[in-house]
Amino acid sequence: MSTLRRHAITLIPGDGVGPEVARAAQRILDAAAARAGVAFDWEEAEAGASVFIKGDQTGVPQATRDSIDRTRVALKGPLETPVGFGEKSANVTLRKLFETYANVRPARELPGIPSRYKGEGVDMVIVRENIEDLYGGIEHLQTLDVAQALKIITRKGSEKVIRFAYEMALREGRKKVTIASKANILKFTEGMFQHIGEQLAPEYAPIAANHLIIDNVAHQMVKDPAQFDVIVATNLHGDIISDLASGLIGGLGFASSANYGDDVAIFEAVHGSAPKYAGKNVINPTALVLSASMMLRHIGELDLADQVEDAVLATLEEGKALPQDVVRQQGGDVEAAVSTTGFTDAVIENLGRTPSSVPSAASRPRPTAPNPHPRWPDGEARRAEIGPATVVGADIFVETLMPPAEFGAKLAALAGPEFELRIVSARGTVVWPKMSPAFDHPGFFRSRFVARDPSKAVTDEALAALVARVAGVAPWFHIEKLRSWNGEEGFSRAQGE
């Protein structure tokens, strides 16, 4: 007597159309599993708007966290994200709670779906760093008119996601990894990401590696998308270009996604909750079904994953039972479209079939385990390698309506024997000792003080005394220490400095 292979899965239906697409994916997976001697133990949990309404500002209750801790894998419908004000995104909270540092979004030509690039062989994967960058959501109002966001990029976080991209390329038989960054402008944050990608490349010698500035990546994706294989990018840039990639193959309704950590993986559609379509049984569930196929590969059910993906492709190719958005894209009569339920039924009926106009899922290389690679020195080992940091000055941020010439002169006079005022800048541009004639006064300035004697480290006591003197001229808001390592400055210069 055969024994079923069982998998515990946390199912988060989500908001808006989420429950409808989640049930569709669940039905298809259960039908496929029944054919293959597999069973899923679904643990239903909640997150998003329904949780916010109950007063939980995280959007992710403890019961949901406990479920994912048990199952280590979740399939999630779209969640509503507050815009502008209010609670933090429950989507981002889930990613951060479980350290799912790599967001993976494939973009591949689909049969029956109109596209400007039909027949050109578009088949790329965007790997997006998933928990750092501006998505830390660290923001402050410096004044009522000046807002600040902190962009956090770490060496460890960058290495983890870039290694993930290289190793995924090896597993899936892909040939090239493109490191995408804005390192030409953001030389420390995006620059760190670029340099790590380039330094790791020799460890993955079978994979060709190149670096492109992110705006050129966007340009090239529209001009010639077939040139890309795997693109790895920082969080914000990866978010933008992955949506662009979905537009190349038909739209967000077909965009699958996975969030991978070392211990937990969360699978979701890229599209939103579309509340105006909720409860109408018209939404296209393809994106979440394809995400569920990615989940099956993650848990080792490779044959099952191929069957589910190929059934979706065969249904789209057949064209007999298509949801509203697909019919509309094809220029057909939406009255001929099938419901969400009807499309789900058609996919279930096509389990075991493969498409003929595009490569089947079963024909692609099966994932193979990558070889282990050594990690870079971290913590104490890295500090010992590079040497200690030396504090060489400070940037002090202040609010004032004084003209820059007057303000700069006052600060220069109070610098004291230990410091000199090197520059005053606004929005990254020097306004003292020289000022652009086109300067538009923002009322918020960075004052850069550096040690008069560079051979002597600046002490915290000296900085505290300096800040107190600055406060006598104008209100200060925060201070950034300026540090160097072996004489190499760890801070950017202002425009004009």
**Could you tell me the radius of gyration in angstroms?**
26 Å
- Total helices: the number is 15
What is the straight-line distance between the termini?
77 Å
Poorly predicted ranges = none
CATH class of the largest domain: Alpha Beta
- Strand % is 15-25%
Main structural class? alpha/beta
Strand order of the largest sheet: 2-1-3-12-11-4-5-10-8-9
Q: Assign the CATH topology of the largest domain.
A: Isopropylmalate Dehydrogenase
| Shape label | elongated
CATH superfamily of the largest domain: Isopropylmalate Dehydrogenase
Helix percent band: 25-40%
* Count of beta strands: 18
Mean pLDDT: 91
Q: Topology, pairings included?
A:
Blueprint (H helix, E strand, L loop, with lengths): L4 E8 L5 H19 L1 E7 L4 H5 L8 H10 L1 E4 L13 H8 L4 E7 L14 E7 L9 E5 L2 E4 L5 H17 L4 E6 L7 H12 L7 E6 H10 L6 E4 L1 H14 L7 E5 L4 E5 L16 H13 L3 H17 L5 H6 L10 H10 L29 H8 L2 E11 L4 H10 L5 E8 L2 E4 L11 E8 L8 H12 L4 E10 L2 E2 L8
Parallel strand pairs: 1-2, 1-3, 3-12, 5-10, 8-9, 8-10
Antiparallel strand pairs: 4-5, 4-11, 6-7, 11-12, 13-16, 13-17, 14-15, 14-16, 17-18
Helix pairs in contact: 1-9, 1-12, 5-6, 7-8, 9-10, 10-12
Can you put this structure into words, describing what you see?
- The chain is an alpha/beta fold and 497 residues long.
- It is built from 15 helices and 18 strands.
- The chain has three domains: 1-101 and 249-363, 3-Layer(aba) Sandwich (Isopropylmalate Dehydrogenase); 116-246, Isopropylmalate Dehydrogenase; 384-489, Alpha-Beta Plaits, CATH 3.30.70.
- The chain has helices at 18-36, 49-53, 62-71, 90-97, 155-171, 189-200, 214-223, 235-248, 286-298, 302-318, 324-329, 340-349, 379-386, 404-413, 460-471; strands spanning 5-12, 38-44, 73-76, 102-108, 123-129, 139-143, 146-149, 176-181, 208-213, 230-233, 256-260, 265-269, 389-399, 419-426, 429-432, 444-451, 476-485, 488-489.
- The mean pLDDT is 91.
